[in-house]
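Posting for a labmate who doesn't have an account.
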Amino acid sequence: MPLLQVFTNVKGSDIPSDFLSGMSTMFQKAIGKPMQYIEVHLVPNQMMMFGGSDAPCAYANLVCIGKLGKEENKLLTQAVSAELAKIGIKADRMYLVFRDLEPQNCGYNNTVFTS
């Protein structure tokens, strides 16, 4: 149940039409889960400031069942940052927050995941 949710002040009109598919591919490779479970949610046009500036910035949530940890999160941060740089968001203008869910706390297809 890998979910990557990105909120940004970048205008939707400035985001290429293939950006979401590229984010999905990057995320799937970086997290190592099947594409059928990958979800990417991009929310542009947000009223945001980072460090007192309204230059392009982002806040991202990365939620997954497993596959997270100190070293994994460093690699995921690098991968997400590289992808967001394509729409003008510098690595020092975003936060990425990780949440490792217990399988029973995620519903999918009329049930929950189990370990």
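Reply:
Got it, the structure tokens are right above this. The chain has a mean pLDDT of 97.
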